[in-house]
Amino acid sequence: MKLLLHTCCAPCAISCVKSIKSEGIEPVLFWYNPNIHPYIEYKARFDSLSKFANNENLKLITQNEYGLKSFLNDFHPNTKNRCENCYRMRLEKTVSIAAREGFSTFSTTLLISPYQDHKIIKQIGEETGAKYDLQFFYTDFRPLFREGQSSARTSGFYMQKYCGCIFSEEERYIGEHK
Ligand code: SF4
């Protein structure tokens, strides 16, 4: 089975990859995250994922688009449903690349995070897969989240402090103190 795995960062990729490999599948990683801002943060997460792919000897396909301007154009000022649209943007791109490159299935490391809307991610994965006639490889990776984070810390991977967009950065550093 050829699986294209959308990867948001190294800490989330660690346990997803371990779980997928335990099923005898060697995933190909895919980087497409124009939702991560500012640029220094984007680069830190990308460099960390590249290091992980290298350590694991995994192929990494990159669609390296730093997307602050396009993200703001598309999502501001209506930021209410931004996460759903953000998942869709990334999964649409993933499935389109998977279809073009002859993969039989696709998935995302977003499925490991207890902080994301898991149900919506699954729904969007299935919807976008149906559009391209590709199976969405669904697994609830959430029970592996803490283990993956701890392993990432031990291995010295960059650990982000907020989800990705500048709105989530504001919520992390100002919102929590309100
Ligand atoms: S909070 Fe995270 S998932 Fe939601 S829009 Fe921002 S980067 Fe995307």
Main traits of this protein?
178 residues, alpha/beta, Rossmann fold, 5-stranded parallel beta sheet, 7 helices, 51% helix, 10% strand, binds iron/sulfur cluster
In short:
This protein is of the alpha/beta class.
Question: Any overview of this molecule?
Answer:
This protein has a single domain (3-177), classed as 3-Layer(aba) Sandwich (Rossmann fold). The chain is 51% helix and 10% strand. It is an alpha/beta fold. The chain has seven helices and five strands. The protein binds iron/sulfur cluster.
What is the level 1 CATH name?
Alpha Beta
Mean pLDDT: 95
**Could you name the ranges where pLDDT drops below 50 across 5 or more consecutive residues?**
none
Principal-axis shape equals globular
Following the backbone from N to C, one meets helices and strands in this order, namely: EHEHEHHEHEHH
Note the topology:
Layout: E1 3-6, H1 10-21, E2 28-31, H2 39-56, E3 60-62, H3 68-75, H4 82-100, E4 105-108, H5 118-132, E5 135-136, H6 145-155, H7 166-173
Parallel strand pairs: 1-2, 1-4, 2-3, 4-5
Helix pairs in contact: 1-2, 1-6, 4-5
Bound molecules: iron/sulfur cluster (SF4).
